[in-house]
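Sample pair:
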Amino acid sequence: MSNYTIDLNCDMGEGFGAFQMGNDDAIMPFVTSANIACGFHAGDPAIMKRTVKSAIKHGVAIGAHPGLPDIQGFGRRNMTISEEDAYDMVLYQVGALQAFVHAEGGVLHHVKPHGALYNMAAVKASLADAIAEAIYAVSPGLILYGLAESELIAAAERIGLASAREIFADRTYEPDGTLRPRHLPGALITEPAAAVLQVKRLIHSGGADTLCIHGDGSHALEFVQTLHQNFDKEGILMKSPQQNRS
């Protein structure tokens, strides 16, 4: 695994109002990309601005993390939406975060759909295409983060977006390569050693550009610290994917 480069991304800014979710301040120095909630499943203007500022301070690539309009369910409940709905939701949320990034002198780097929107689009080509079209409309230079070997990656290729094939350290997989639903036993990995073993296996199998840690997980900080230690030992370089500005 020596001389391998991977991005370490984390979902962040997922509090709301007075309610804090995750440990963003402690985690931010350990990641190379931050996926920032845009107000639909979590986040609000003040949290978005604060998280953007923190990412810029630490030199972390900034991504929009658009989700379904479901704060109570944290965007993790499936909803019946049309392709037009998906396009409009993503365009609206990415545009909102882009405004904060621009105001702080930063550059929006990528877009990673959240939760149920991510999982639905991973297997439904028409939804994936709508999401990719919305991202392309904002900027063709943005990178679409999607589950490795999923419809999201295929949609990015169809429209001409750069993509980052994502793997997970804290989630388990179904035999078809999709993420195991959270309501099923064994869906979450809670032991750092088990997370490291899964990451090594997935990296060895090839086809991975970025590795996700869920910032709302109770073990998130421990996971990123353990991964850092193992990556350092094995000579794995952590770096965010390069944007296509051609």
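The chain has eight helices and eight strands.
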